[in-house]
Specification:
By secondary structure, the protein is an alpha/beta fold. The protein is built from ten helices and seven strands. The protein has one domain: Rossmann fold, CATH 3.40.50.150. The chain has a seven-stranded mixed β-sheet with strand order 3-2-1-4-5-7-6, sandwiched between helices. α4 links the parallel β2 and β3. It is globular. The structure holds S-adenosylmethionine.
Length: 263
């Protein structure tokens, strides 16, 4: 779960860096990214990753596409310092910039992508318009995001699902990191409304029966509840979770969406 969305302050910077690194190492996230890359259908040229976080995807793109010049942009100077600190010599440029006001001329890029960013934004349509603006005619925009309303749990005891949903709804309301929980399933609509053509979309449902494998995407742990003063409220549910893990019945699913369109 995106328990934190932004780099600000030393502790939070380290937490987000570690969370994003763990997610990048998750085979589930790699499957989502591979789906995105296929749908994006770019072969090289000038590529932009908006809200790049640690810059992992930008570096992967550079390694995969030798003809690409990749720019990784994030509105947080801390994020860009972190990403630049992880630089591996690939053809990636790291820059500070806000999706609402990207510091590039119209039509500058052959491809633009953005992953797990729109869910955190108050005005996702303005962000999509900003990304479309810097794309050349014929270039492709690829968006990836989570639909948090697709989160489903199962396991013994059966109350694990309902109890978990109630707690997550309350936690999200308090944490205020995810402004738009259904974001993933809205991506296609936003691309269509922004005037992109040849719009394609695909859900990628993540299924975990191993809590340790789920954690990089959804870190169900006491710390997420502690951070918003919900530790006592969550204790019973966390005990249920431990039981489901111990007896092997734990299951969680979450759908992420990939969508791409042509300017
Ligand atoms: C959950 S992280 C995702 C990072 C990366 N895309 C990934 O998938 O690993 C969200 C990122 O969006 C960035 N971000 C949030 N609002 C932004 C904005 N208005 N403009 C640019 N980046 C933004 C945050 O700083 C953070 O790095």
């Amino acid at each position: 779960m995106d328990t934190i969305s932004d780099f600000s302050g030393t502790a939070q910077t380290a937490m987000l860096r570690d969370y994003l690194s763990a997610a990048a190492g998750s085979s589930a996230i790699q499957r989502v990214r591979a789906t995105g890359l296929a749908m994006w259908a770019v072969g090289g040229g000038r590529l932009l990753d908006v809200g790049c976080g640690n810059g992992e995807v930008a570096r992967e793109l550079s390694a995969l596409l030798p003809d690409a010049e990749v720019t990784a942009v994030d509105h947080s100077a801390d994020a860009i310092a972190t990403a630049a600190g992880l630089h591996d010599g690939s053809r990636v440029t790291y820059e500070v910039g806000d999706v609402y006001d990207l510091p590039y001329p119209d039509g500058h890029f052959d491809g633009v992508r953005s992953e797990r960013v729109l869910q955190h934004l108050a005005d996702p349509d303005r962000a999509v318009a900003g990304m479309a603006r810097v794309l050349r005619p014929g270039g492709r925009l690829c968006l990836i995001d989570t639909d948090w309303q697709s989160l489903q749990l199962d396991g013994s005891p059966e109350r694990l699902h309902d109890g978990g949903m109630e707690l997550f709804a309350e936690w999200q309301g308090k944490f205020r990191s995810v402004v738009s929980p259904p974001s993933g399933r809205t991506l296609r609509r936003r691309l269509v409304e922004a005037g992109l053509t040849d719009v394609r979309t695909e859900p990628v449902t993540l299924v975990f029966t191993d809590l340790d494998e789920a954690r990089p995407v959804m870190p169900f742990g006491p710390e997420m509840f502690e951070s918003v003063g919900m530790a006592d409220r969550a204790a019973g549910w966390l005990a249920d979770l431990d039981r489901a893990v111990a007896d092997g019945t734990f299951l969680v699913t979450l759908t992420m969406w990939v969508a791409a369109g042509t300017r």
